[in-house]
Amino acid sequence: MNTNQPLESLKTSGAVFFIFGATGDLARRKLFPAIYSLYREGKLAQDFAVVGLARRPRTRDEFRLDVHTSIQEFCRYSCDSIESEEWTTFAEHFEYQSLDINNVDGFRELSVLTEELETKFDIPGNRMFYLALAPELFGSVSYNLKEGGLLESAGWHRLVIEKPFGYDLASAEKLNEQIREVFREEEIYRIDHYLGKEMVQNIEVIRFGNAFFEPLWNNKHIANIQITLGETVGVEERGGYYDSAGALRDMGQNHMLQMLTMIAMEPPSRLLPEDIRDEKVKVLRSLRPFATSDDVKNNVVRGQYTAGEVRGTELPGYRQEEKVDPNSNTETYFAARVFVDNFRWAGVPFYIRTGKRLPVKTTEIVVEFKSMPNNVYLGQKHKLEPNLLVIRVNPMEGIYIKINAKKPGTDSQIEPLAMDFCQSCMIGINSPEAYERLIHDATKGDSTYFTRWDEVATAWSFVDRIAAAWAENPGDIETYPAGSWGPKATEDLLAKDGYFWWPVNGQDEDNVVWIKNN
């Protein structure tokens, strides 16, 4: 790919999509519905094919029925019956092959099938390999793709891999070395699906497309920034995986730090993938490291949910969940106070928190601006609330700005007023899903919203210091009842700086007057 080529000129070209782990939950819930949505919107023409790959025996017709069922259940577009002409035309592009990823002969058979599909659908040799597999299998698959002849076609070859990318920096480096023996860095697309979310991608436009934000986007005008990623669910059927990962590795190393980089990055010199990703890496390198265990203790809260009750429903504690060690010290919650030590952000605390079994499913970024002086003019007689910019990422998408204004009909009473833009209210269910954007971007060769290796490595380096400090005292973990907002120590983390967590997702904002978009 010519990295100097403007993104607008990158058109989607036909390709064969190889879905490794095609019988898994990710393929069923996200990948097949995303491909169908792209097809319905004309972003995939007729020159494509999808090959499902897994160990499980499956006939082609059984696989196509599985795809139809997944689209019916999870896609934002309704799907015709399996007898319809439209569905038949779409389904013809899907094939299935049972594959032992450690058997190179199976890859050679796959190569023969691929050439047949490329001839049938006039596909120019472009091949995308989507590994919805455990990370420890990435290396083996990469080697066998090469040995099996699947990287010998005339078109481009791209490898798409899911998080987690390793367990720590050392394992990530080993994994990267294995993949790089086969694929070049520009051919590797590491997915963090949060980077595909509409409002995360909108952060750049909000910041750099509005003259009244960028001049204020610094430590002279911003008091603190809060990033919340709350989940109401427990570990569900992922207990085995989660007990070896925890909230820090499952959410912190990727989603949380990626959102932080989008908020804190400098304006890129050009709107090209590498320039944008360069600025994100600069933020990660500017994070103040936790040099000692005391630094971690003073700036990071680690928690695990216990039994609780939500709306009359009893919920088990983490240690009572299926496939979880009853003596586990794995964190299901963490919050941290983070500093970006550069000229723009020096002294501004970034508070991040994420956890399971919280009261609300939400992802929000709150930018709190510095308060007006309280000893002059209005501040002498009124308690003025600080201005807020809130970016709502999930489940409702939108932004709102909270300002102070005179209450109508009064002489001088001041109340907070929120100007709200609800994107979900406008677009509703037809808002493109993150995986649609990312698959489409990967097909175009646009790596902007995928993580580069130095991003991954720098994030792991930061997170590993926290994990090492926790390993010194594994039993030193706070608890919180399921359905609460986490351990009390989380509130103290902000209180010692004179701040508090702002309510998320509209909670407890009855005192705010709302001006909503139509």
Automatic annotation (TrEMBL):
Keywords: Carbohydrate metabolism, Glucose metabolism, NADP, Oxidoreductase. InterPro entries: G6P_DH, G6P_DH_AS, G6P_DH_C, G6P_DH_NAD-bd, NAD(P)-bd_dom_sf. GO terms for molecular function: glucose-6-phosphate dehydrogenase activity. The keyword Oxidoreductase applies. Residues 19-202 form the Glucose-6-phosphate dehydrogenase NAD-binding domain. NADP(+) binds at G21, A22, T23, G24, D25, L26, A27, R28, R55, D100, I101, K163. Substrate binds at H193, K197, E231, D250, K356, K361. Pathway: Carbohydrate degradation; pentose phosphate pathway; D-ribulose 5-phosphate from D-glucose 6-phosphate (oxidative stage): step 1/3. Residues 205-502 form the Glucose-6-phosphate dehydrogenase C-terminal domain. HAMAP family: G6PD. NCBIfam families: PRK12853.1-3, zwf. Belongs to the glucose-6-phosphate dehydrogenase family. Catalyzes the oxidation of glucose 6-phosphate to 6-phosphogluconolactone. This is Glucose-6-phosphate 1-dehydrogenase. It comes from Paenibacillus gallinarum.
